[in-house]
Amino acid sequence: MKRKWNWLILIGLLFVVAGFSIGGVLLVAGLFRAFGRPRLYHGKILGSIFVVLSALMIAFFCYAFFYGLRQVPASTAAPHVGEKAPEFTLPDQNEKPVTLAALLSGSKAVVLIFYRGFW
Known about the structure:
The chain is mostly helical. It has a domain at 7-71. The chain has three helices and two strands, in the order ααββα. Strand 1 and strand 2 (97-99) form a beta hairpin.
């Protein structure tokens, strides 16, 4: 069977790249307008503030994405897909203890979701 391209992912990527690109172009064009023809357009001060804020947001995004995510510890001890989970007892939303065996007694499978948070 021949595999097809998932066009939704590619189109989504293009919109994200185009969004950043169009946003940057509009900010720069607005600054050139404000400083090039100040008698016709307002925005020298506010435009400069917007450009600095945009640059800071992009820098924060790059820092969080390229550096911050590499600092998350590896989850080598977590169970892998298809591996049998160890027996456990955890409180539910009403603070009553729930065991894995009790969950499995009424059904064939249980879905476990592990969040890699820092709380």
